[in-house]
Prior knowledge:
The complex is a heterodimer of chains A (680) and B (418).
Chain A: H1 6-18, H2 20-24, H3 26-41, H4 50-56, H5 62-75, H6 80-93, H7 99-111, H8 118-129, H9 134-150, H10 158-167, H11 173-186, H12 197-206, H13 212-222, H14 230-240, H15 249-262, H16 267-285, H17 290-306, H18 326-339, H19 345-355, H20 361-377, H21 381-390, H22 395-411, H23 416-423, H24 433-445, H25 453-462, H26 470-486, H27 488-504, H28 509-524, H29 526-534, H30 544-547, H31 555-558, H32 565-575, H33 583-601, H34 610-619, E1 622-627, E2 635-642, E3 652-659, H35 669-672, E4 673-679
Antiparallel strand pairs in A: 1-2, 2-3, 3-4
Chain B: E1 2-9, E2 14-19, H1 30-38, E3 48-50, E4 55-61, E5 64-70, H2 76-94, H3 99-104, H4 106-116, E6 117-118, E7 121-122, H5 127-133, H6 139-148, E8 178-191, E9 197-211, E10 217-222, E11 230-233, H7 239-245, E12 247-250, E13 255-264, E14 274-282, E15 288-297, E16 305-313, E17 318-325, E18 329-333, E19 338-344, E20 353-360, E21 372-380, E22 389-395, E23 402-417
Amino acid sequence: MPYLGGEETVRELRRALSNPHIQTDHLRYRNTIHRVIRLMSQGVDVSGLFSEMVKACATGDIVQKKLVYVFLCSYASVNPELSLLVINTLRKDCSDPNPMVRSLALRNMCNLRLPGLCEYVEQPLTAGLKDKAACVRRVAVLGWAKIHALLPNTEIDAAVVNELYGLLRDPDPVVMVNCLRALEEILEEEGGVAINKPIAHHLLNRLKECDVWGQSEVLSVLQRYRPRSEDELFDILSLLDPALLSHHVPIMAATLRLFLSLCSMLPAVCVSALERARGPLLAAAGSSSRELRYAALCHIQLLLRSEPGLMGEHYKRFYCGYAEPPYIKQSKIQVLVELVNDDNVAVVLDELKGYCTDVNTETSQAAINAIGSIGRSYDDRCLGILTGLLELKQEHITSAVLQTLRDLVWVSPQYGDAVCSALEKWEDQLQDTQGRGALLWLLGVYGDRLSGAPYILEDFIDGVRSEVSAEVKTELLTATLRVFLSRPAETQDMMGRLLQHCIEEELDMCVRDQALLYYRLLHCGIEDVRRVLQCGRRSDLSLGPLIGRPPEPISQWASIFNTLEPLMLGASSLNMLSFPCTRVWFLKTLCLFVVIFQAYVMCPVPRCSPESLQVALQLVNIQTLAFTAPNKLPWKISILFLSRNQKMFGQKCILRIKINQQPEHPHCCKTNTHILITPC
Amino acid sequence: MIHSLFLVNSSGDIFLEKHWKSVVSRSVCDYFFEAQERASEPENVPPVIPTPHHYLISVLRHRIYFVAVIQSEVPPLFVIEFLHRVVDTFQDYFGVCTEAAIKDNVVVVYELLEEMLDNGFPLATESNILKELIKPPTILRTVVNTITGSTNVGEQLPTGQLSVVPWRRTGVKYTNNEAYFDVVEEIDAIIDKSGSTITAEIQGVIDACVKLTGMPDLTLSFMNPRLLDDVSFHPCVRFKRWEAERILSFIPPDGNFRLLSYHVSSQNLVAIPVYVKHNITFREGSSQGRFELTLGPKQTMGKGVEAVLVNSQLPRGVLNTNLNPSQGTYTFDPVTKLLTWDVGKINPQKLPSLKGSMSLQAGASKPDENPTINIQFKIQQSALSGLKVNRLDMYGEKYKPFKGIKYMTKAGKFQVRT
Lengths: 680, 418
């Protein structure tokens, strides 16, 4: 990159480098090169000195060589022709008696990253594989992987691959691990190194000799090996057992992953492996490195998906420290929710209550959400805490509390009265879109019990012109209509104003369509309106257990353990808080989805044929109207839902479901499924 | 595995980059900078950031982000641990790991990174092997080097990499044979308003510095090994022997290493060594608040509590404080609202206290939350869990080594809620 003022310095350095006096003075020569490297690291373009540096390469001084190589490797791609000159020196160095020089030359020859020079490199690399010094062999082995990366289209000679397989038995453990790494890269298209019984046992026996990094790589390669007999399996397991307690977290995690994949048929062994690894995992979750702590927490969340009782008694280790970054606090809160049981619910709630007033708004919202989800299965103390938080009159807290209350009463309608009494004295102004949406929903559902509901609605309707969010407007329409059903006298006038505004002046099509729909619905008569709108107000109590997840089998997540995915899952569940459609809507459709597809079809959608789906759905009075051919994405289906119990969406409604991607895990359905429900 | 490494300072400048596999353009860090801008505090940047073609895994240490660029699936714990190792190595070499130190020693940094990774795979990360390859810069050596023209690179290959015991080189020789063990315990605790313990746990380590000639075989036994139920060992410890006899038997690595780390968390076992009496109140409608804090020792087994440092993040509404410490010095930063009180040693006869008033923003409502108080302290000559080494024996060599064991307790994350 060009750098002003660098030119003069570069010219001066060039003079110095080609000055014979300096060249003969060992020390001054090296110091000049030192300066070049320093400038290079500051971003000055010193590529002009390439030919001078090539000359400096021919020296017996190892430091000088190293420095020159650093320079050459950075600028070789700019000067491919001149780099040809270096090759000669490098090849000469490859036959130097000092193994350090040999390995250095070999490594940098591959690091020049010039595909044109590969033909010159292959011969010294082949010689390097047979070198008597281990450090040269280490470099040579990886050198083949580098060549392969440079020339991805040319086949690496089969003889070389064989040689590399042979070097797996090299006395030096680093050469062995490097061979594995190189073969993994070279044979990537064939699925990596072939692990047969002799190789697997050889690797297992030498595991102890490797350094920590090597161990964790050998362990991950071994995953592809399947033992032939149960005896062999248990021999391997007992060999690996001590590593589950390693204080080196990467090794512990790699071992645990290997355990889980080896024992996928033996769930009892998996569980005991998880129990054994609990100590080190907990220690990692309390480690002094933030990043390690976060990674460990994400993995603990995975474990809890199948073994909710695993960490039960250790819940206090997931209490948040004051100065921890929000991403750690939020994953700790998520873990705490999983660990709640009858004995500790009071203590955990007290602790979570403290987090609700956290400085970071996302953390406090996560804590409020957590209290709400505990409230679904535990006592009404949660409700007391939530309503208490409303009195703080902090915008973000109030908004989060309202959203949580909405989700809570939808699942547990018995809390309705308490929510009503909390909302009775409502007089705040909310700015937050989602909070307002939640408030409107609650007003609509409990309009008959809240004396102030029409007045709050009136404020909203008066301000509808300045309202920007379509979501709030649609919620407002529904809420107004619902309140109208129970208190027509107070609401009729403002409902008229609202409908008029939405039909005549509104620019957003969704809002306008909904207003038109309601307008026509009102024409059909009040009974129809009541049937359509008020049926959804009370949810089915039997849906409760569907919200709480049953423990998953370990194999569900074993394949993603110790990969980047759990850390990403953690991040995406944070985004759930800002999910674009309202949570109730989401919950409703999800429940329906779960009811239909899990209870009656028992397998994720794209795997069964649409015909069988059709038959299955007919059994529960669901008519399939249309669907796309199987194995086509996005996959769409429209169904007519005739409900006998009328609890969900009225007697009839059309459901349009669109699945954008093949879900790999059932829980992914949430994010890439679109469901549109139209009452009719 | 690790494609490239970028070093980013807290103001968002890349001041060093190193590529192993292929050159990844600096622009990949834009995703990182975005996350950095969103984060209110430097430590709030999430450790893993996905970008369309890469993953960025970062650790923050000494206010420098070490950002690794990853192109394919890797175990994240592996990368995080490796980055920490890089930082530890820098610290080991330069004494401090700051932007200035790295820039000053940029040549050594390049050499180190070149040795630590090849083609993205960790190569030599053990500090004693690295130090044989590249000698750490010292002032004396820099002077000597400039005069004699000798270098800070070992001309010889590191010996002992091929010894039967991979963690120990062969042919070690010392004139003074000595083995020192430090038992260091850190107590993490959260104490609630009324002074009762919410959580308390002890993270302990035994660090060793062994300088013994030849191939010694050591055994270490404890008075009360039952305390250690949640332990992890250095690979040199013979695990079978520990399971059977509760004795640590091992051939030690040469030099400094961590022999084992352990964890004590059952609450009744953890004695809290200090107590805090506090009275922090804000009155509604008044612009004054009261602040009183007294510290005292408790269950310290007769050992003094030293190097006590108290700090607390006061609520945003506090404008200034007017406090009077009975000992030590205190500072309050009106911008960050951070109160720091350097107490020093606690004298059980005359307990240190900090009393006075806080002035609050006029007209603002009273803060919802009382501040949390963080305390740091040290107790020499004592391990809080009560762990005691019984004896240390050496087999396999003829000489008599000098042995020493030191105990120390420190506060880790020790918080008092008020």
